[in-house]
TrEMBL record:
Keyword set includes Lyase: yes
First-tier enzyme category under EC: lyase
Subunit structure: Homotrimer.
Family matches, as PANTHER family: 2-DEHYDRO-3-DEOXY-6-PHOSPHOGALACTONATE ALDOLASE-RELATED, 2-KETO-3-DEOXY-6-PHOSPHOGLUCONATE ALDOLASE
Gene3D superfamilies: Aldolase class I
PROSITE patterns linked to this entry: ALDOLASE_KDPG_KHG_1, ALDOLASE_KDPG_KHG_2
Enzyme Commission number(s): 4.1.2.14
Organism: Afipia massiliensis
Family in the record: Belongs to the KHG/KDPG aldolase family.
Protein's UniProt name: 2-dehydro-3-deoxy-phosphogluconate aldolase
Lineage, top ranks: Bacteria, Pseudomonadati, Pseudomonadota, Alphaproteobacteria, Hyphomicrobiales
Amino acid sequence: MTGLSASERQAALEQILIPARIVPVLTIDRAEDGVPLARALVAGGVKVLEVTFRTEAAAAAAKAIIAEVPEAVVGIGTVLNADDLRRAQELGARFAVSPGATPELLDAAAGSALPLLPGVATASEIMQTHAKGFKLLKFFPAEQAGGIPLLRALAGPFPKMRFCPTGGIDGSNVATWLAEPNVIAAGGSWLCPGSDIKAANWEVITGRCIDAMKHLRRR
């Protein structure tokens, strides 16, 4: 029993991502950095966070953030298979993100209550995910796959699909991406690069978030 239909899971994900606009992609090497990093992001007005399953510390960091930073809306990224999806749900994540979309993962998502944002980069991948009931997708790697010209080309045959592009997006181009009508949010690591996390530059991260959100509001 999932408790939610495919359309309800998609709606729940939209309710998270549309107000967020920017979703920082977090690669956390030390579990103890998770909570202060999340607090720094939230203080800067960035509340929806993607903690990637790329490090051994990721699960512990995400668990701590969920427990100690209630203002944060935590998703788990780099979900590669059904086991990763199950682990993300057990941690208490609000959503999951994958870089691609295998049949196994899409089938697992259909049996899970956790909303999944699957990654696509081609028309065929969009067709495969759409056939499974997905209308909200991660466009990855966004810049490297063809950038905004490709996304605009895909809008023709897929007018109802919406995207959260990630990959090659930073402060210089995020507003341009968000101006596209089929983009509801954008992800990236520029708000909290690994060097700032390692150095515990929490105030710098907060300031960068404040500047980013002010810039988006001005547009």
